[in-house]
Structure to design on (143 residues):
């Protein structure tokens, strides 16, 4: 089995714990996957524990911005927190989309804590055949 290692992962996790939760001015990153499936690109973001109304998706020109906020769960007055490892606060990710993608027709679905965006490839970017015409002789340009 092939495993990708990241020697700085533990350092990043520790730094994120020390800096506290993300805010709108300094959001935390969210993990994502991106791949091509047929005539569209699919981008999936892990956002467990985030409600759909706490997710904001914007596209300006070719810049896609996804922001989400995980709020603490409401607890009764007599509850004492013993351990809290799940990050709270604001999460954000920005992607620069290629000109070959159709940003007018992005579809977004949220299911089981995963936000999935489907971005179609623009018609002008799809491969096409060009037919060759056969002329009936030589043409001259006179001027």
């Amino acid at each position: 089995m092939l495993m990708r290692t990241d020697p700085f992962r533990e350092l990043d996790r520790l730094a994120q714990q020390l800096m506290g939760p993300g805010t709108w001015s300094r959001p935390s990153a969210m993990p994502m996957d991106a791949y091509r499936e047929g005539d569209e690109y699919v981008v999936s973001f892990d956002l467990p524990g985030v409600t759909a109304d706490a997710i904001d998706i914007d596209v300006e020109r070719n810049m896609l911005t996804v922001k989400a906020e995980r709020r603490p769960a409401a607890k009764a007055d007599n509850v004492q927190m013993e351990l809290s490892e799940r990050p709270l606060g604001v999460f954000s990710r920005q992607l620069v989309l290629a000109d070959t993608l159709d940003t007018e027709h992005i579809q977004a679905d949220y299911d089981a804590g995963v936000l999935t965006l489907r971005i179609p490839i623009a018609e002008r970017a799809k491969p096409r055949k060009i037919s060759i015409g056969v002329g009936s002789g030589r043409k001259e340009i006179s001027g």
